Amino acid sequence: MYGKIYIIGIGPGSPDHMTPAARKALASSDVIIGFSLYVSFVREEFPEKKYEISGMQNELARARRAIDLADQGMTVAVISSGDAGIYGIAAPTLEMMQRRGSNVEVEIVPGISALSSAASLLGSPLTNDFAVISMSDLLTPLEVVMKRAEIFAKSDIVTVIYNPRGSRFPDNLRKAIDIFAKYRDPNTVVGIVRNAYREGQSVKITKLSEIVPEEIDMLTTVIVGNSETFVYRDMMATRRGYSKKYSIDA
Fold first, then answer.
1. Does residue 122 sit in the same domain as residue 231?
2. CATH code (residue 218)
3. What percentage of the chain has pLDDT greater than the value 90?
4. What is the mean pLDDT of the chain?
5. What distance in Å separates the CA atoms of residue 135 and residue 244, rounded to the nearest whole number?
6. In this structure, are 139 and 181 located in the same domain?
């Protein structure tokens, strides 16, 4: 008899921001599989569980192990920070299941994403259309990453940058910022959030021309505003367009 795989987004890391559905799925699982940092976010609440921990960039190994255990009849939780379907473990697990022709039951449990967490700490920068891009070129060719960055920069769309700067791609963020600088005002508002809703949290609102890539790492989410993004009372927000259609005078 087959078991079940839960693919769970545990949110930014704070217990207050993990959904009840995620907790229920974790509580019903026999084994929890995840990257060491993500496991540290749930282990205190579920100390009795069996854990299988692996390093970064071992997504396929985690997916393979989850399927193997579920084939043995176990209920397995595979966890990602944020939402597992946004640069997370969901797609690799489904791809592995497809390749193996797996009949194991699978349920994807959504979580509060990094972009939602960062946006809430900054204010409301994602009120209108926005795009999301990862600076990692480990799986996507660099030329594709930069081509997409240029399309977003030209289009004046608010852009969320995931995985902005890693040890294996230390220069990609600088290249992307240089592209944005070609098409955006140097005073364009930019929000930088590190460790959202967990220990070591920092929130910074700056300008496109003042970004220092060397101060940014993989625990950071960067949001580049557009021509409608403004700062009010230390909060970053993007106009939706109401003032162009309606009177919003006090």
1. yes
2. 3.30.950.10
3. 93
4. 95
5. 34
6. yes
Strands in 158-162's sheet, in edge-to-edge order, are: 130-134, 158-162, 220-224, 189-194, 202-207
What pLDDT is attached to residue 224?
Answer: 98
Res 241: pLDDT = 72
Give dist(CA 157, CA 151) in Å, integer.
9
Please give the Cα distance from 64 to 75 (Å, whole number): 14
Q: Which of 64, 87, 112 is the last residue of a domain?
A: 112
* Span 128-132, average pLDDT: 97
For residue 223, the SS3 value is strand
Structural domains counted in the chain: 2
- Spatial CA neighbour of 92 closest among 41, 34, 40: 34
136-192: per-residue pLDDT in tens? 999 999 999 999 999 999 999 999 999 999 999 999 999 999 999 999 999 999 999
Closest by Cα among 215, 222, 172 to 193: 222
Residue 41 within any structural domain of the chain: yes
Whether 126 and 223 map to the same domain: the answer is yes
Neighbouring CB atoms inside 10 A of 103's CB total 9
Residues 122, 226 within the same domain:
yes
Q: When comparing pLDDT for 85 and 250, which is higher?
A: 85
Contact assessment for residue 230 and residue 158, using Cβ atoms and an 8 Å cutoff: no
Torsion angle defined by CA atoms of residues 139, 155, 226 and 129, in that order, rounded to the nearest 10 degrees: -80
User: Which domain, by its residues, includes 207?
Assistant: 115-238
- For the entire predicted model, the pTM comes to 0.94
